[in-house]
């Protein structure tokens, strides 16, 4: 049994097999390879795309989705081991994972970091504790990484610019009114480096570098795949010659849990917005974003409405890649 917690655990060939299967699911109906199965979807945080694409995808595979919102429509969950449970949580992840493993063929979880202490959140302990106690595959629907988004991004890159090796991929930080999760940025770095792209990480200040576990993985994977990773604060140099622009906003880790201080650092950098002038510097690049996106904050209307914007394709690909991943985890393609 395998989990889908991070793409670091999966080889490029294994991920490419999922991407290929996703393309075939998109081109022709999948049949019902998971007929009779059930998948639990646990949301500790809001979602539009993840919830809709998983619910529809599970349905299209012939399976049933059990959607739970712990702390809202379901009992709150304690994830820490060995605690005296005299707080708000009514049950422990040990029982939640054990019970859902008896009912379901996989358990998916969205659990954002708590934005208090990065030295704790960087360990991704919540989803790891679910995987530890579950006896069925566990799927990460976004924690400090977003591996389902990674698959959708790489499917979209391959659809639009072909083989990714050696293509210039720019991951640009953008301004946002509040500090956001680093998960999608971490994930973009992981998947682009695994697939041999020449990555430019564009940040306004070194405080916006990603956690060293992801920077190190990016450098190591890039070296292994024949790609590269460089960091710059130079907007013009970053966009020049780019073939794929990927935008995301995230909080500065040295100010994690201190949003007022982080806001002062962030304030002068509104000009990192993706606009038509910057896109004109590229080599006819495609632009994408994981969504949701605040228009005219992260990217202009002109960029979002341009033919080169493939964000909706990436969102659609969430459906196809997740179906392929679930068949791999639950069905091994043999049902
Ligand atoms: N991209 C993404 O995960 O979207 P949601 O937060 O709406 O699920």
Describe this structure in words.
The protein has helices at residues 12-27, 49-60, 93-103, 118-121, 125-133, 147-161, 183-194, 212-225, 235-239, 259-266, 276-279, 301-304, 311-331; strands spanning 38-43, 64-68, 77-78, 91-92, 106-110, 138-140, 168-173, 198-202, 228-232, 244-248, 286-288. It is α/β, with parallel strands linked by helices. The protein has two domains: 7-145 and 318-334, Rossmann fold; 149-314, Rossmann fold. The mean pLDDT is 97. The protein contains 13 helices and eleven strands. β8, α8 and β9 (228-232) form a beta-alpha-beta unit. The strands form three sheets. The chain has a five-stranded parallel sheet with strand order 9-8-7-10-11. A four-stranded parallel sheet has the order 2-1-5-6, with helices on both faces. It binds phosphoric acid mono(formamide)ester. The site of phosphoric acid mono(formamide)ester (CP) has 9 residues, from α2.
**If helices are DSSP runs of H or I spanning 4 or more residues, what is the number of helices?**
13
Q: What would the average pLDDT be, to the nearest integer?
A: 97
CATH topology of the largest domain: Rossmann fold
Q: What is the CATH class name of the largest domain?
A: Alpha Beta
Could you say how many structural domains there are in total? 2
- Strand order, biggest sheet? 9-8-7-10-11
The oligomerization state is single chain
Molecular shape: globular
CATH homology superfamily of the largest domain:
Aspartate/ornithine carbamoyltransferase
What composes the largest sheet?
Answer: 5 strands, parallel
């Amino acid at each position: 049994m395998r989990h889908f917690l991070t793409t670091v655990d999966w080889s490029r060939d294994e991920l490419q097999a999922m991407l290929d299967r996703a393309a075939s699911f998109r081109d022709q109906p999948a049949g019902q390879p998971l007929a009779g199965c059930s998948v639990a979807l646990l949301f500790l945080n809001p979602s539009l795309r993840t919830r809709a694409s998983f619910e529809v995808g599970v349905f299209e595979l012939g399976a049933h989705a059990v959607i739970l919102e712990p702390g809202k429509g379901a009992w709150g969950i304690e994830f820490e081991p060995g605690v005296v449970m005299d707080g708000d949580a009514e049950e422990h992840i040990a029982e939640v994972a054990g019970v859902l493993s008896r009912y379901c063929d996989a358990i998916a979880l969205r659990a954002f970091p708590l934005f208090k202490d990065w030295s704790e959140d960087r360990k991704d302990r919540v989803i790891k504790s679910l995987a530890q106690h579950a006896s069925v595959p566990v799927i990460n629907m976004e924690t400090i990484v977003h591996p389902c988004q990674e698959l959708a991004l790489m499917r979209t890159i391959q659809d639009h610019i072909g083989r990714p090796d050696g293509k210039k991929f720019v991951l640009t930080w953008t301004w946002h009114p509040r500090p956001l999760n680093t998960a999608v940025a971490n994930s973009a770095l992981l998947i682009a480096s695994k697939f041999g792209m020449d990555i430019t990480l564009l940040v306004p200040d070194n405080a916006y570098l990603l956690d060293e576990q992801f920077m190190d993985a990016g450098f190591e994977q890039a070296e292994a795949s024949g790609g590269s990773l460089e960091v710059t604060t130079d907007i013009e140099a970053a966009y020049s010659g780019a073939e794929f622009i990927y935008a995301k906003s995230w909080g500065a880790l040295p100010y994690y849990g201190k949003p007022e201080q982080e806001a002062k650092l962030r304030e002068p950098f509104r000009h990192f917005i993706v606009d038509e002038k910057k896109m004109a510097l590229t080599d006819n690049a495609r632009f994408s974003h994981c969504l949701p996106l605040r228009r005219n904050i992260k990217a202009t209307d002109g960029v979002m409405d341009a033919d080169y914007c493939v964000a909706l394709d990436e969102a659609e690909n969430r459906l196809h890649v997740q179906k392929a991943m679930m068949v791999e985890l639950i069905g091994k393609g043999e049902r």
